[in-house]
Fold Secreted protein.
Amino acid sequence: MAVRVAPSTEPLGDAPAPTAGSQLPPSRPARLRAFGRTTPARMVSLGIGLIALALLSGTVAAVQVADRQRTLDTLLTRIEPLADASQHLYSSLSIADATATTAFLSGGLEPAAVRDRYAQAVGDAGQDLVDASAGVAADDTAARDLLTELSAGLPVYTGLVETARANNRSGYPVGSAYLSEASSMMQSTLLPLAERLHTEQSDRVVQSQDEFARPPWLAIALLVLALAALVIASILLARWTRRRLNFGLIVAAVAVAASVCWLVVAGLVSATATGHALDQGARPLTDLTTARILAQQARADEMLGLVRRELSAKYEQQFDDHLARLQAIFDDYPRSGRVEVGTAQVAAAAEASAAWSRAHRQLDSLLGSGDWTGAVTMAVGTGDRDSASHFAETDSELSDAIGQTRTELRRNVDRAVSTLTALAPGALVLAALAVAGIVSGLLPRLREYQ
């Protein structure tokens, strides 16, 4: 009987069958995952995160503080002086035009005092152009174009005035035409250019301060986050290593806490000073310079109306409009609530402006009755009831108020800048100290696992 042999179930080849106790070696990703669950790996990850956060918070703080300090310093040394020079430029040009008109009203050879005042005003305008040009940034093409036009137009204006004077002294009526042309150029070209220059620079002053009237919240938030991370890291490290205190992390936490305190105090003081410069300096200064420009425009309307004997027509309407806008500024100034600087001068200017308006009505009445000589005397005289005296008092009080607010502005901006001194490099030094503390605190614990 034949024997049937069952087919073999043994594997072919020489390789032995795997036994129950043998395993395949783990793959690299599996080994990495296993290492990631170990305490040393957690310490390394924790240290890298803490170092990155400390460096980021310190760098952001240093950059923000340096940018704030640089911008405020530029405001103090270039932008604000340029705005002030442009305001003086407008005033000098306006005084020159009003004085030239006054000299023409005197007829024949003008008084020496009037001639000297005109020459002084023209010289001041030239110096203001130089001062303004020195403060213009290289990339501020708009301001450079305005100053170029003003520099080119001023000699043309003075040439027309000299021609008008020469004809006036000789008794030629054509002198009035030359003076009209010169004054028209001043009123329609030069003064609008100077006003535009001043407006743009004043807006830059307000914008620069308004941007930094708030503390550097981003830097403060990052530093607080870094401090919180160090506290949490200390708690985790205490659990992992069974040690309560880590001197390195304590040093790092103290360094970050010092950065937070320094930045908060300096940032708040700087922001407060900048905000005060806005409320007590930049914004009132803008109102006051606008008021002074309006007063000078009204004076120009008054004088040109007399020269052209049209006081009851176009120039009268312009005079009333300018004085109404001037009075609106005076009315709003003390009601702002926060403005303290220059209020006494503004009140005095408001009184002088009201007296000027009354004198102008009398001048208009004289001109309406045909007393042109009496109207001219009231317009250029130095008596207590004369229009010129009240205008001069208005302009003088506004000039004093402008000087006070400018001093307040610069004092507060300087305080804001000085408060930030050494903070930017100090933030970097403290960040480096925090990094050193983190490294020195974690390295000994890692060595224990070798």
